[in-house]
Inverse folding.
């Protein structure tokens, strides 16, 4: 039973354009949502988060949108840069703290020059 | 730089031969986690330590054990590796139990022959 799903295993975007990575979840109790970015041969690194009291959180080129009624989360990267090529994981939790974080399978983003 | 270090990067073991994976951290974080990630799947939490308090996930097989002799080090012991245990093992830390941000090591890729 996969509670957090990233239905696109891969995404290819042209440099300078917008990248949109999607994440769906099934557990309505989830209140905290995070995105992690992973380069090859490195561990995932935290990118951006949002709690359920908000519907948008922005950090530079990265914006996360939360639609609780649709149980949908998305990460927008504008403009996309070659260094953004990585695997992106979304994660969700019903409680504060990482001990109950549930991860998605990841989406491999490739930015083409 | 403060970090989470996993050794070795690649580990090969034989079917049924015990193996230990290592993780150390210089972040002085209270919580350490072990995740298992199989190819194209979501990272799956095996267990975590809050200080010396060990917390096992309900579906973590008994074959997997962990030790945390001090704040800096945490070990994952696989008592009798099976072919299905071949995976990437990720160690992560968090400052405490109320923060969702995880700091990951680069992982150890375990092969079972």
């Amino acid at each position: 039973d996969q509670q957090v799903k990233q239905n696109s295993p891969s995404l290819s975007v042209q440099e300078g354009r917008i990248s949109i990575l999607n994440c769906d979840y099934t557990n309505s109790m989830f209140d905290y949502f995070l995105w992690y970015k992973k380069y090859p041969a490195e561990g995932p690194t935290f990118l951006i988060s949002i709690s359920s009291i908000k519907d948008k959180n922005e950090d530079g080129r990265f914006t996360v949108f939360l639609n609780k009624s649709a149980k949908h989360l998305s990460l927008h990267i504008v403009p996309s840069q070659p260094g953004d090529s990585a695997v992106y994981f979304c994660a969700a939790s019903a409680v504060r703290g990482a001990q109950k974080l549930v991860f998605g399978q990841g989406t491999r983003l490739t930015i083409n020059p | 730089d403060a970090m989470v270090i996993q050794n070795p990067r690649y580990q090969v073991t034989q079917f049924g031969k015990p193996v230990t994976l290592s993780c150390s951290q210089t972040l002085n974080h209270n919580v350490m986690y072990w995740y298992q990630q199989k190819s194209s799947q979501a990272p799956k939490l095996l267990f975590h330590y809050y200080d010396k308090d060990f917390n096992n996930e309900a579906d973590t097989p008994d074959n997997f054990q962990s030790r945390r002799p001090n704040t800096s080090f945490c070990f994952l012991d696989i008592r009798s590796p099976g072919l299905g245990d071949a995976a990437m093992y990720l160690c992560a830390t968090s400052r405490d139990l109320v923060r969702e941000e995880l700091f990951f090591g680069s992982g150890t890729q375990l092969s079972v022959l």
